[in-house]
Every structure is written in structure tokens, then in C-alpha cells.
Design goal:
Number of strands of chain A: 10
CATH topology of the largest domain in chain A: Alpha-Beta Plaits
CATH architecture of the largest domain in chain B: 3-Layer(aba) Sandwich
Strand order of the largest sheet of chain B: 3-2-4-5-7-6
CATH class of the largest domain in chain A: Alpha Beta
Number of domains of chain B: 3
CATH superfamily of the largest domain in chain B: Thiamin diphosphate (ThDP)-binding fold, Pyr/PP domains
Shape of chain A: elongated
Distance between the termini of chain B: 30 Å
Low-confidence stretches of chain A: 160-198
CATH architecture of the largest domain in chain A: 2-Layer Sandwich
Oligomer: heterodimer
Helix content of chain B: 25-40%
Structural class of chain A: alpha+beta
Largest sheet of chain B: 6 strands, parallel
Strand content of chain A: 35-45%
Order of helices and strands of chain A: EHEEHEEHEEHEEEH
Number of helices of chain A: 5
Radius of gyration of chain B: 24 Å
Helix content of chain A: 25-40%
Low-confidence stretches of chain B: 1-18, 30-49
CATH superfamily of the largest domain in chain A: ACT domain
Structural class of chain B: alpha/beta
CATH topology of the largest domain in chain B: Rossmann fold
Radius of gyration of chain A: 20 Å
Number of helices of chain B: 25
Chain lengths: ~200, ~625
């Protein structure tokens, strides 16, 4: 099964390497891994797509949460979410095919971002399936270059309390869980997110 | 069978009861220090983080490091100097910290590890950049596998040349990331106090583990110029202390309902200081108790409820009990493959309760029915209240029968001393009342089998990683930690010589460490596998050894060579009575295997039993086999 996980991580060198290494050292398969900034300069968000059965997914989530520089992990197994992938694709064109490609891009709600005599670049975002479908459609025109960001994801609605790094069965009562975040610093929005409710 | 030596005889050995229980209490205190106060659910904040503070102004990084080590109650450290760590060593010149200069940084790491295992306090290592730091990788991995609190401070080239392949530069945080719980490259002296506070918290709380702090030269030489915040900032660090009350109750209910329960106790019980609670649980519920290699000492093996060690070279009775149990209660143990054998055949009849502080241990290899995530001592404290006394007569009788029928045994039939006999002699002479360290191999397993373990933190051995050469340096660390006590490294010839240069460290600090080398001029365990599974083709396992006694003498250490089996008892006494350090080279029989042995891929009831005969017929029938 394909699962999407997100991890809020401390924004410092070595975290990406630690996460990537944990996956390879424990033999977990990553389909894609995206890292980007968040609204808090101290924290980054990773979106990881893994191929795993339920039990492996459970281990992946717990192993991720165990890394000291990983602040919060959630998976989207049982909750509605939005996922997006962004693609840039450069296609070979002739005067005859150019309008066809523009029409296809329009149908997929893509945008033409660069036009030349022999090539045209299309920007397209959406769920992975949609991007895959577009790639198949335009393949006959000749794909010169293709780049995709990988998947990012976010839960629908307000922040939900489920999907913290624990399964319900082994999660200690929240009041009994100790966070070491105490300090003088004002907690940021992202840290508040990271604190389990209750 | 000319003469079969059975276990259990050591109970009558002359051990002073009072010293023993004093020792246990003292140890409990030390561990309580490491795991924080019992009533509070707060993380122990070591040192005095005060927010924005000007107490570091005008101090160099090296001065701050030394000051903070003392504030964190560090009294001893191990290491080796070098260019990039010189600013720190300059500060060590007039500190009251007891610093032990080693002969190789690997030794420093294992000493700190042995120190930590002997006390519960974190072991401290200070080494230089490049090779100094990379030499600590094996000790870090050893400590990581066995969850031992340890902090390595390594020198690093100046921040502005990092990445330029400077002299003695290595990407040490990159190299050590998979074998540390957390590591840091300090880029600015302003961050150093906070990082040191975090390092101590991370190393000693939750599931303990090693931490590395990489210190560039300009960080240790630059001064702090303004007020800084040294408060630990660990938003991603979670640790669990009290178990979920519903799970604790569910576990107790499961145990109360069980007809044939078995406690399976690991190193976590030692780390959390849970030995009193383990005993209470076992005695209150009448539950037989087996321990892992790292759990030895967590439960008094002289108790009739003790099943001694389980697993690949564990007691047949322990393995049979686990396989026949209807409820297996794992406490601070992680279902290592050396314990479970073939997972498909492991504990087929048992419901499994798992008490562990690390959520990743739950259902990692064995599916757990009732998980209790938390500190073993606190979880058991909660659980004991719900446990009801059960007679379990039939079960205990069955176990007593297995225990008498399948003891640890060997045949004393060779002209040279049997290695097991030497360990029995040491057990008899000490009553198990000493700190033992080991290398890795046959001697380690025989030590586990033939010493009657009754004191926590008395077995110091590399379990998870299986690091040969661990015995001597860890014995030094234990001796530094507990100066008045008898420390014996039971070692193999091949393990011993891997780190034998640390004899010079022993000599330099006049540490009264005893070393008993079981010398069969072979890598015994590898030989055993070659004999059993590779047609006795002894590929590169025979050792041509030096005269270890003469070698010790050349270091200025008493060396004894014991060639005759009738001298063993006398020489053991002589070794123990000698006031200073002493190395004994016990020549012993080469062609000797460790039994029982679970061949790899088999269930743990499918042991090769050696001389004690064959398995009870119902075992194979009930448990099934993959073969």
C-alpha cells in the first residue's frame, strides 16, 4: 500500500540525512520525499510517500517520531486530505502540434510557461494520477525534459487530533506524556500544532 | 559421563549478604538519579537552565565545557588528546575532573560505556578530531545497541575550514548519525551551553543512548560575549515514564488469568533500576523469571523462580518455559533474534505483554497483545498492585523438572582445564559478588551460564553489537566508577588481544582490575560454528598468541600462567587476593562447544543440548518445526 506521511522537523543540517538514512538502514521504501519551509523558520515539513503494509507503516511512523530532531509525525491513512504534485514538462513542438499541446494543457488546467520555436514548457499541478495521465497523453509529442516535485499533503478541515506518532493502543495518556519543550521561548504556531491536545 | 558439573551449587558460596544488599541499594540510588525523581512527571532538568543568563560571558568554549561537566555531576572522563581538542585539554590540566588517559580512543569509549553500566551515570569521552573521533564509532555503536548513556566530545577543525578536507578532518556528525541518539556540530560558542544541557538530557532519559558533540577549535577558543539562553530546546523529544493505566490493568488481568506465565526481563529493567519491582512481581504472582544476557542480575538467579538466561545459548528450561508459556511478560527487552530464534516458532501459545519505554520496540518483531509504554520501574510499580497471588503449582513443578533434567553442564574429561570449570571456580571464589566484564564469544556465554547472577549492574557485556575487545576497557571503566570493588574481566584470548594495549592504562592509574583469559588459542565461537556448520574447516580462526603473563609483566602488571587444571582454584584465589592488577592466562581445552545451542533458523525449543541428552518428546510435537 502507498501511504503519505508528513513530518515536522527541526530546520538544521543533518535532519534530512538522518531521516533518509533511517529509511535505508531499516529497509523501508520511499516513493518520494519532499522537504520545504514552513511558516516557522525553525521548522521544516517533510512529506514522505512510502510503500508499506499496515505494520510496516506503524514502524515507519514510530521510527520517524523517535528521531530527536523530528518534532511531529502524522499519516493520512484514515483522514481526508489534499495532496498535490507539481510538474514542469518541456515538449518538442512543430507549428502544427503547438496548438494541440496548448489545448491539452488547458484541459488539464495547466499553464504554458515558456514557448520557443522547437519547444514548449507546461506547468501542471494536481494529484499524481492526473499528472501521470497528462504525461501519457503528451508522450507522443516527444518529452524533452520533465521535472516533478513529489507529493505534498495536508489534512482537510481544522487540525485533527488523530494521527499523532502513536497508535491509540499504545499511546500514553496525554497528560502523562512529557514534552521537553519547556523554556522561555514563546511557542510558535507550528510548535502548538506539534503539542498533542489535552 | 565421568563428571558432570551442575548449576545451582554456587548458592552456598561465601558471599557476604550485607555488602550485597548495601550494594543493591546504593545502585538503586544512582539509577534513580539518572531516571529522575519518581513523583514528578517532569524530565529531570540537569544543571540549572536559567533562560537568558550572563554567567558564561567572558568564558571560552573549553572553559564552559569543563565547568558544565562538573555542574552535571561528572567526576570522571576518558580520552586522548590531539590538535583539535587541545584547548579543552589545556583546561583539563587544572580541573578536579578525574581524567583517564587511554591508549586508543576505542578504549576510551568502552571505558565510558563500562562506567555507565556500572553506575547508571553517563560515561564521558573527550577525543580529538578525525581519527580520534572515528575511533569512537565502535563504542558508540556498542552503546547505541545496548541503550547506554554516554557522551563523546570530539574536536573538529575550525568552522571556516570544515568541508575543505583539512588535516584530521572527518565528517564526524555524518559518520556517527546512525549510531547516536543525537549528535551535534557546534557552530558557535553561544550554542554550546544549551547543547551540553540537551546532550545530558538526551543521553540519560527515555531509552538512554550515546550522544556526540563535535567541537571545532574556534568554538572551544572563542569567548561568549553577551548573555545567552542555555535552556534546552527539544520540541521533538518525547519520553514516556508512567504507563497507560488502562494498559497496566489489562496486563495485570492477563497475567492473573494465565496458567503458565513467564517473565522475560531485559537490560531495560537494569537501566530503569526495576530489579526490586521485578522480584516483587515474580514473587507476588508466583511467576518464573528468565533474563536476557543484558538482563542478568536483574533477578536473583538463586531464587527457585529463576530460569536463568534464555535464548540461543540460554538454559533449555528457560527456552522450554517460554515455548510452553500461555503468557509472556517482556520487561525492558526487545525480542532480539538471539532470544527468539525463528520468529515463526517463538512462544506459539503465549499472549504477550510488553513493557518498554521505546514505542518502536512494540510489535517490531513479535506482535504484542498488551503494550505498556513507559519506564519499567514505574510501570511495574503500578502493575504489582493489580497482581494477585496464584499457586501455579503444576507449572512450577514442570519447570523444576526441566531445571533438574536439563542443567547447564559439561564433561570434565580433558587433560587441560575446561573453560566452564574455570568460570565455576571464579564463581565459587567470589560468590558472584564482583563486577564482571567480558569480551564476546564462548567465554561470554559460559560466564553468563556458570556465574550465578544476583546483583544488578554486575554483568557488563556487549550484547547487541557483540563487540570483541570490549572486556578489558569496560573493566577499567567499571573500576574507575567503583574503585573499592572487585572487577574481573573474563575474556577470551582473541577478544583480549584486540584492546590489550589498555593494560598500559591500568598500569598508569594503578587500577586493580583482574583479567582472566580463557585461552584456547582460537576464536572459540567462530570455531564452534565452523565445526558445526562448515565441516570443521577452521578458516583463519586459530590464533598464535603471545605469552600473556609475560606480556602483562612487561606492562608492569602481575602476570600468571595457569597450565594445569588442578591449579585453577589456587590461581583464581591468588588472582583475587592480589592487591593490584593481575592478568591470568588460563590454558584451556580447545575442542569445547557452548551448549545448549539453538542453531540459526530453528525455534528455541530445537536446541542442540550437548551432553544432557535430547528434548522432551512433547516439545517438538507441540511446538512444530519448520525443518
Amino acid at each position: 500500500m502507498r501511504h503519505i506521511l508528513t513530518a515536522l522537523v527541526m530546520n538544521e543540517p543533518g535532519v534530512l540525512s538522518h531521516v533518509a538514512n533511517m529509511f535505508s538502514a531499516r529497509g523501508f521504501n520511499i516513493d518520494s520525499l519532499v522537504v520545504g519551509r514552513t511558516e516557522d523558520p525553525n521548522l521544516s515539513r517533510m512529506t514522505i510517500v512510502v510503500i508499506a503494509d499496515e505494520r510496516t507503516l506503524d514502524q515507519v511512523r514510530k521510527q520517524l517520531a523517535k528521531i530527536v530532531t523530528v518534532v511531529k509525525v502524522r499519516d493520512y491513512k484514515d483522514s481526508p486530505y489534499v495532496s498535490r504534485d507539481l510538474m514542469l514538462v518541456k515538449l518538442g513542438v512543430t507549428p502544427r502540434t503547438r496548438s494541440e499541446i496548448i489545448e491539452l494543457a488547458d484541459l488539464f488546467r495547466g499553464r504554458v510557461v515558456d514557448v520557443g520555436h522547437q519547444a514548449i514548457m507546461v506547468e501542471l499541478s494536481g494529484e499524481e494520477d492526473k499528472l501521470d495521465a497528462f504525461v501519457e497523453l503528451v508522450r507522443p509529442y516527444g518529452i524533452r525534459e520533465l521535472a516533478r516535485t513529489g507529493v505534498i499533503a495536508m489534512a482537510r478541515g481544522v487540525q485533527s487530533s488523530s494521527g499523532d506518532e502513536q497508535t491509540m493502543e499504545n499511546a500514553p495518556e496525554p497528560s502523562r506524556m512529557v514534552k521537553a519543550a519547556a523554556g522561555k521561548r514563546q511557542p510558535t504556531q507550528a510548535e502548538l500544532e506539534a503539542t498533542p491536545p489535552g | 559421563m565421568s563428571s558432570t558439573s551442575l548449576t545451582g551449587g554456587a548458592a552456598s558460596a561465601p558471599a557476604s549478604k550485607t555488602t550485597k544488599s548495601n550494594k543493591v541499594e546504593k545502585l538503586a540510588e544512582a539509577t534513580a538519579f539518572a531516571s529522575g525523581s519518581e513523583v514528578s512527571n517532569e524530565l529531570p532538568v540537569l544543571g540549572q537552565p536559567t533562560g537568558l543568563t550572563d554567567r558564561y560571558i567572558g568564558k571560552t568554549g573549553a572553559q564552559i565545557l569543563l565547568q558544565m561537566l562538573l555542574e552535571h555531576n561528572v567526576t570522571d572522563a576518558f580520552g586522548y588528546p590531539g590538535g583539535a581538542i587541545l584547548p579543552t585539554f589545556d583546561q583539563l590540566y587544572d580541573t578536579k575532573l578525574n581524567f583517564i588517559l587511554v591508549r586508543h580512543e576505542q578504549g576510551a569509549g568502552h571505558m565510558a560505556d563500562g562506567y555507565a553500566r556500572a553506575t547508571g551515570k553517563p560515561g564521558i569521552v573527550i577525543v580529538t578530531s578525525g581519527p580520534g573521533a572515528t575511533n569512537t564509532v565502535t563504542p558508540l555503536a556498542t552503546a547505541y545497541m545496548d541503550s547506554i548513556p554516554m557522551i563523546v566530545f570530539s574536536g573538529q577543525v575550525r568552522t571556516y575550514v570544515i568541508g575543505n578536507d583539512a588535516f584530521q578532518e572527518a565528517d564526524v556528525t555524518g559518520i556517527t548519525r546512525p549510531v547516536t541518539k543525537r549528535n551535534y556540530l557546534v557552530k558557535n560558542v553561544k550554542d554550546l551551553p544549551r547543547i551540553i544541557n540537551e546532550a545530558f538530557i538526551i543521553a540519560t532519559t527515555g531509552r538512554p543512548g550515546p550522544v556526540l558533540v563535535d567541537l571545532p577549535v574556534d568554538v572551544t577558543t572563542n569567548k561568549v560575549e553577551s548573555a545567552i539562553d542555555d535552556t534546552p530546546w527539544l520540541p521533538g523529544y518525547k519520553t514516556y515514564r508512567l504507563g497507560h493505566s488502562r494498559m497496566v490493568k489489562a496486563a495485570a488481568d492477563m497475567i492473573n488469568a494465565a496458567q503458565r506465565p513467564v517473565l522475560y526481563v531485559g537490560g531495560g529493567a537494569i537501566l530503569s533500576g526495576a530489579w526490586k519491582e521485578v522480584r516483587e512481581l515474580a514473587e507476588k504472582g508466583n511467576i518464573p523469571c528468565t533474563t536476557t544476557l543484558l538482563g542478568l542480575g536483574a533477578f536473583d538467579e538463586n531464587s527457585p523462580l529463576s530460569l536463568h538466561m534464555l535464548g540461543m545459548h540460554g538454559g533449555a528450561y528457560a527456552n522450554y518455559a517460554v515455548q510452553d508459556a500461555d503468557c509472556l511478560i517482556a520487561i525492558g527487552a526487545r525480542f532480539d533474534d538471539r532470544v527468539t530464534g525463528n520468529l515463526k516458532l517463538f512462544a506459539p501459545k503465549a499472549k504477550i505483554v510488553h513493557v518498554d519505554i521505546d514505542p518502536t520496540s512494540i510489535s517490531k518483531s513479535v506482535k504484542v497483545d498488551v503494550p505498556v509504554v513507559g519506564d519499567a520501574r514505574l510501570c511495574l510499580k503500578d502493575m504489582i498492585g493489580h497482581i494477585e497471588h496464584r499457586p501455579r503449582e503444576q507449572w512450577l513443578q514442570q519447570i523444576a523438572e526441566w531445571k533438574s533434567k536439563y542443567p547447564f553442564a559439561y564433561r570434565d574429561d580433558s587433560p587441560l582445564a575446561k573453560p566452564q570449570a574455570i568460570i565455576e571456580a571464579i564463581n565459587k571464589a567470589t560468590g558472584g559478588n564482583a563486577i564482571f566484564t567480558t569480551g564476546v564469544g564462548q567465554h561470554q556465554m559460559w560466564a553468563a551460564q556458570f556465574i550465578r547472577w544476583s546483583i544488578p549492574r554486575s554483568m557488563i557485556t556487549s550484547g547487541g553489537l557483540g563487540t570483541m575487545g570490549y572486556g578489558l576497557p569496560s573493566a577499567i571503566g567499571a573500576q574507575v566508577a567503583r574503585p573499592g570493588e572487585l572487577v574481573i574481566d573474563i575474556d577470551g584470548d582473541a577478544s583480549f588481544i584486540m584492546t590489550a594495549m589498555e593494560l598500559a592504562t591500568i598500569r598508569q592509574y594503578q587500577l586493580p582490575v583482574k583479567v582472566a583469559i580463557l585461552n584456547n588459542n582460537f576464536q572459540g565461537m567462530v570455531r564452534q560454528w565452523q565445526k558445526m556448520f562448515y565441516g570443521s574447516r577452521f578458516s583463519h580462526t586459530e590464533m598464535v598468541n603471545p605469552d600473556f603473563a609475560a606480556m602483562a609483566e612487561s606492562f608492569g602488571i602481575r602476570g600468571i600462567r595457569c597450565e594445569k587444571k588442578q591449579d585453577v582454584d589456587k590461581v583464581v584465589q591468588e588472582m583475587i587476593r592480589h592487591p593490584g592488577p593481575c592478568v591470568v592466562d588460563f590454558l584451556c581445552e580447545t575442542d569445547e562447544n557452548v551448549y545448549p545451542m539453538v542453531p540459526s533458523g530453528k525455534g528455541i525449543h530445537e536446541m542442540e543440548l550437548g551432553i544432557v541428552g535430547s528434548a522432551p518428546p512433547n516439545m517438538a510435537r507441540d511446538m512444530g518445526t519448520l525443518a
